[in-house]
Amino acid sequence: MREDPCTRCGACCAAFRVDFHRSELASATPGGVPDALTVPVTATLVRMRGTDAAPARCVALAGEIGRSVRCTIYAGRPSPCQEFAPYAPLGIGDDACARARRRQGLAPL
Questions:
Q1: Domain residue ranges in the chain
Q2: Measured between alpha carbons, how far is 109 from 92 in angstroms, rounded to an integer?
Q3: What is the pTM of this model?
Q4: For the purposes of burial, counting CB atoms within 10 Å of the CB of 95, is it exposed (0-12), middle (13-18) or buried (19 or more)?
Q5: Which site in 11, 17, 75, 79 is 20 to 30 Å from 96, CA atoms measured?
Q6: Buried b (16+ CB within 10 A) or exposed e, 62-74
Q7: Phi, psi of 59 (to 5 degrees)
Q8: How many other CB atoms are found less than 10 A from the CB of residue 92?
Q9: 61: helix, coil or strand?
Q10: Tell me, what's the pLDDT at 3?
């Protein structure tokens, strides 16, 4: 079985803002994103803490980028994270994945 490059990378979690609708929060949906890991953006949008910091790093990311990482809320991660670079786990990146990896000094997939 092929190793998932995403479990070594984590660059996307330290490159982009992650905004999503409040309906994905645990307070609205069982198993959703823990409310405490977000900050309000608008009346209907929230953002993962840390993703608008400089440098960015999602509060749910554990580990060392480029070596070994994991999402601490993987099963309940927000939709932008679920939809990001769908083929990256197979070793096939896209433009956004390549940009995130470059920001961390990593070669594209």
A1: 5-80
A2: 6
A3: 0.91
A4: exposed
A5: 75
A6: ebebeeebebebe
A7: -60, -25
A8: 12
A9: strand
A10: 72
Please provide the size of the chain in residues: 109
First to last CA, the chain: 17
User: Which amino acid appears at position 75 of this protein?
Assistant: A
Give the integer Cα–Cα distance in Å for 60 and 7. Answer: 14
Question: In this structure, which amino acid lies at residue 16?
Answer: F
Cα angle for residues 56, 25, 88 (degrees, 5° grid): 50
**Tokens 């992650």 sit on residue:** 18
Q: Whose CA is closest to 84, among 101, 63, 66?
A: 101
Residue range 7-28, pLDDT digits in tens: 889 999 999 999 999 999 999 9
Can you tell me the distance from the alpha carbon of 44 to that of 16, in angstroms, rounded to the nearest whole number? Answer: 19
On the CB side of 69, how many CA atoms lie within 13 Å of its CA?
23
